[in-house]
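Appendix B. Extra example for self-study. Work through it before the problem class; the solution is given directly after the inputs so you can check yourself.
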Amino acid sequence: MVEPYYSLLDTLRDEMQLTGTKKGCDEGDCGACTVLLNGKPVCSCLVLAHSAHDGEVTTIEGLANGQELHPVQQAFVEYGGLQCGYCTPGLILAAVGFLESGEEPTEENIKFALGGNLCRCTGYSKVIEAVVAAVPRPDRGSGRGTE
Amino acid sequence: MADFQTIGKNHIRVDALEKVTGKATYAGDIYLPGMLMCKLLTSTHSHARIKSIDTSAAEALPGVRCVITGEDYPDARFGSGALMDRRIMARDEVFYIGEPLAAVAADDEITALEAVELIKVEYQDIENVIDPLEAISDKSPEVHPDLEDFEGYGFALGGNNCTMLDADRGDVEQGFKDSDLIVEETYHTQPISQGFLEPMACVADVEANGRLDIYASTQGPYQVRAQLASVLDMPIGNIKVTAMEMGGGFGAKLRLALEAFPALLAIKTGRPVKLINTREEAFTLNGPRLETNIYLKTGVTNDGRILAREARSIFDMGAYLGAGPNSGVGHGLGAYNIPNFKLRSYGVYTNKIYVGSYRASGVADMTFATESHTDVIAHKLGIDPMEFRIKNALSDGDISVNGSVIPKNGLMETLEALKERMGLPKKLPSDDPKEGRGVGICVGEWRSGSGPSTAAINVNEDGTISLLTGSVDISGSDTSLAQIAAESLGLRLDQVVVAKRNTDMAPFTGPSGGSRIVYSQGRVVQNAAEDAKSKLLDLAADRLGVPADALECAGGAVYVQDNPPQSVDLGQLARMSLSSRGGPIIGTASLSSLPYAPVFNAQGAEVVVDRETGQVRVTRFVQAQDVGQAINPMGVEGQLEGGAVQGIGRALSEEILIDKDTGEVRNPSLATYLMPLSVDMPEIENILVEVPSADGPFGARAVAESPGFGPPAAIANAIFDAVGVRIKTLPLSAERVLAAIQGRPEDEYRMDVDELRSAEAP
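Solution. Structure tokens for the complete assembly:
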């Protein structure tokens, strides 16, 4: 049962066992719990579950199409945009939300869009590279040649 | 360079798919039937006798299943470092604000929290000491007056000095006499947090036969097992620790942390118990780093040779000796050959959160001091800072501070690579009078970590292999280990399965720390693969009727070197082995330590300093590191970039603020503890220098520790180059830089050297 004080984050994790969404601070500071609410990235720890009642929530579990990864997930894999992986679901959803927002996907805008997601392992370089590589482009190559 | 098939090429991490899909399972992701939630009550007094703890109201709350206090644990002390100075939960006395006093297990988290608030504690305050420079004096109140009774006592000077390390060589006084210039300075570094994104978490369960089943977020499952056995007074064999995916540790998760709380609650209730630290607890419970005060005195000749060094460092240990002050001695010289030295390093108790490890504990503090100092000396001598470093750099055959001979290494190559990439020496002109631009450099040094390592490799019936090690993957090391195994047996990476492990299943290994996994664990994986290979060749020799030394293993088969079509594939050999005399093929290897293999990392920062605000922006950051042999270059770059960015955070913004009267952490949140964001970071340029080590797998050296050391000094040196002010206190905040530009005195941290001298060990 979802109590009135449950956050979306606790509901996803504790009630639905969708544990791909991570809790790093429970205060809206780290971005690890980022999910898409009606297509927009939000910190799910700051959203009450009931206020998301009629909304469409996308978590990391819902991003891939069966075995086929979302292009942003694929880019994180190919470009090494992850290490410990704890911030990764949040970063991926923040990036997906940005790329679908219609804003111009310049490197600077991407950095700004990920500005609410802390990562302690990667130093961000490979994360940014991955998101830049995931920008939909007709002439896009196949990645950096990892084996 | 050797022609490798798998080593030295970029590979997708073996755990990448799990991590981008959210399927990777961390300790907090475990939900067991009937699981209780645990919450902690922690001390609100910095130093006090506990007159009473009343848990009755908490116990009476519906939904509460168990409440424990320090009295419920065996009356024993344990240690994170050399001294057994700590209880798992306060018993009669508290020593810092945040020290655990009681734990509750309840049906849900909210009930557990309510219960915690119902516990009543009566304290009787005792005089505290917060400032380590005050604590070291003999007039200070004592944190642990019973220090001499602690097991492991031996390196302490008494009072609050819980440990002292020293190293001497040559005649330091004569060295100063022979010098043309003596430079004497003090440096101060700030308390910092490891900043791992996953707060510590643990699920404890009890099996039907009474064994404890621990799911932990840890770098050292065997260390957790041993320490848990000690604080619960249980046989080691009654505990199983499973290391789950770990969301960052950086040293904080090397040892027993919170596991003993849910463990005892699980024993008492017979139900699984989960405890996840809050972010606040991540700052206060798990051993971050506290301040360091460092005194340096160096004598040099006019032509730039360093003759003598005296270094004294005081490491604030907080309430307990966690990671000790080893680096004050081990890293007192930097990357230089200094013939005469006298190094002292002191650990001091205060009534604060106790320190733990963080990416080579204290080395970053020492590097800030010694490498700023190096720059100061070079400028005073009028010698280019890079040339001064090159002139004094350690070379093969020199003797290191601990007396070992410096083996072949890439120090000179890293310095030359940095010099060339940055075009040093150079001045960065600025057309805007409101800003100054400058460049600064730094060299960091680390050994390649070692320690007990084991590995086992099974050859499966289809010719794939399963690799079993006890090491926790904290940085992509599983991928590197798989590559090493694949390379050794001539397999593709996708033919290697890396087993998930627990302490029952995997052979013993040391913790994942000190950059030891690829170097030592990698070596033992290589040895285990060689062991498996020799068994495969023996079987194949029988089968093919040729001597084993005429055979080679590659492409998933063993073949006759002179006649490659004459071959037998590994799957066939594995199937044959099932009924062979020697039985199924398993390659094993074990080692206790590998020789010293130094790792040098040279870094350069270009900065813009706003003269009106003191704001420092890093516009370019270059690093060259001798990695020996990059196993997975993409992973190596990721390590280097992550380390450098942690160092930049430490340089510019990160600081745990400590209340001067109570020692309380004033900013235990990620909104107020300022870690770098994507928007803050310059692009990091990496240069991988590859001077193979003698003993690492395929020549690899350690990677992860070194890149974090240099940024504070490189940036401080660049600030000096840009605007002519020398900041000796971290972080290099805008306030501090502006005060220096305006000629206001920097908060002066001074160390009373005479006082220390009188405290000299006999």
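Self-check: Residues 13 and 19 of chain A are 5 Å apart (CA to CA). If your reasoning did not lead you there, revisit section 3.
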